Amino acid sequence: MRRKKKSTRFKSRKKLIQSTYPDPETWRKIAAQRDQILRQFLFGLAEGKPHIVNELVGRFGAYQVSYVLEKYQQYSRPSFLVDEAAIYRHYRWLFAQFGDGRVFLTKQGYDAVVRAETRDAEWINHVFGLSDPDEIFESERLVHLSYAIDITPPAVPPKPADFRGPTSHKYSNTLKPLLNLGWRLDEAAIAPHLSHRGKWRRVGQELSQMAIDPGLINGWPGEKASWAPYHALTLLGHFQEPDFAAGLLDLLLVENDWLSDRLPDVWAQMGPDAAAPLWRGLQELAYEDDKLAVLVAGLLKIAQTHSDQFDSTVREFMNLLDAGSPEQADLNAYIVYALDQLGDDTAVTSIETALNEDRVNRRIMGSDSIKLLGATFEWE
């Protein structure tokens, strides 16, 4: 009897994966080079150098420069009103793919590392996030991987035995595909599901529950199901169901928040009827200041997306600003930012009065950054 030949498929695949990526020394050299490309590009922009890209190509080569600039353009840069959640999600996204052997940082832990790594840094280093370029490979935030994904072998972190989180809800078979999309957050991942409008509408309440499910949101990043809330949010926005707008406010209470930056776009897709619970949240000061900023961003996005909401949104923002006390200086600054973005000069008097009465946090929104005021504003 002939002996059964052992399969070499697994070994061959493992060998192929290993040979696809550079050795550690080469990897470090490429990653450091790309770090320098990004830093010098940002410095060049700040200094107004018109030929900075050509200079970089001459020094580092067209491929490396084009790769870095393409990735730089791909990374979404949300308004400062909501950027913290987006930044933490990017870390979570990197950890899910390359975090094996590393400690996972909660939002609080991540913020502590940010403070430690950017202490006393010049402003340009804040853009990339490190005080010293030599620290690039030591950052717990995995910033060195952002521009090295193509040369880094996957290292999905297994869930530790002592990891604890809330229990997630059980979902119907209709929603189970969302539990398997994982950290594929691009449009291509969700596109096959967008044509089934009727199917998703029938499970709208369940979809809304998935978007705010504490068990999934606080789940282990290396498990695909923990990313389902992101995909559920995307679908809720696509299918324009304003009845679910208020329910999504629960995301503003999440401690390890990696989703709330998505809310303004989703609310805008839902349409003008999504605005009512946002206005109530602002009027009642129902959330922490940084979360009130998300409401302001949502209302701003609705006004920018639906022109019939423009005038009423400007008036309502002005009313809130006129009534805003000095104790609400942060919220007042967010409102000034929104009014400035809307660009209606009827808001100028309200803005000037709030500034002169010291009711606006000028570290958030100073007069020199308000386009509506131009160069005419003078402190009284």
Which helices and strands occur, and which strands form pairs?
Layout: H1 9-20, H2 24-46, H3 52-60, H4 62-74, H5 83-98, H6 107-117, H7 123-128, H8 187-190, H9 197-202, H10 204-211, H11 214-217, H12 228-238, H13 263-270, H14 276-283, H15 289-305, H16 310-323, H17 329-342, H18 348-356
What does it look like?
The chain is an all-alpha fold and 380 residues long. The chain has helices at residues 9-20, 24-46, 52-60, 62-74, 83-98, 107-117, 123-128, 187-190, 197-202, 204-211, 214-217, 228-238, 263-270, 276-283, 289-305, 310-323, 329-342, 348-356. The termini are far apart.
Low-confidence stretches: 1-17, 120-131
How much of the sequence lies in strands comes to: under 5%
Mean pLDDT: 88
Helix-and-strand structural type:
mainly alpha
| Biggest beta-sheet profile | none
| Number of distinct helices | 18
* Head-to-tail CA distance between termini: 100 Å
Helix content: 40-55%
What's the short story on this structure?
The chain is mainly alpha-helical.
Label this structure with key terms:
single chain; 380 residues; mainly alpha; 18 helices; 51% helix; 0% strand; globular; disordered N terminus
